[in-house]
Amino acid sequence: MKDTTKGLYEVAEFWRLLALCHTSMPERKNGRLEYQAQSPDEAALTSAARNFGYVFKSRTAQTITLEIAGSEEVYDLLAILDFNNVRKRMSVIVRNPL
């Protein structure tokens, strides 16, 4: 039972991180929330998180807002390290609201 609980937590954290770690911007089109992103992969991953209930709602210069299971979570956005060819990755640093 303990391993199952840990596994569920890790899956939830996976979706939460997909909803947080990107540079997409939300946009309403025909009543549906869609994402404008730097790459199709980034938009697809953000949309997948949304489809599993981890909805990226908004970003300001200081915060990222998610909606998870009907509850809003606001994270402090500390830094975004853009993708570059040397690192071959991007990073988003946030402070957990808990």
From TrEMBL:
<dbReference type="GO" id="GO:0005802">
    <property type="term" value="C:trans-Golgi network"/>
</dbReference>
<dbReference type="GO" id="GO:0005886">
    <property type="term" value="C:plasma membrane"/>
</dbReference>
<protein>
    <submittedName>
        <fullName>THUMP domain-containing protein</fullName>
    </submittedName>
</protein>
<dbReference type="Pfam" id="PF13246">
    <property type="entry name" value="Cation_ATPase"/>
</dbReference>
<dbReference type="GO" id="GO:0000166">
    <property type="term" value="F:nucleotide binding"/>
</dbReference>
<dbReference type="GO" id="GO:0140326">
    <property type="term" value="F:ATPase-coupled intramembrane lipid transporter activity"/>
</dbReference>
<dbReference type="InterPro" id="IPR023299">
    <property type="entry name" value="ATPase_P-typ_cyto_dom_N"/>
</dbReference>
<dbReference type="GO" id="GO:0007030">
    <property type="term" value="P:Golgi organization"/>
</dbReference>
<dbReference type="GO" id="GO:0045332">
    <property type="term" value="P:phospholipid translocation"/>
</dbReference>
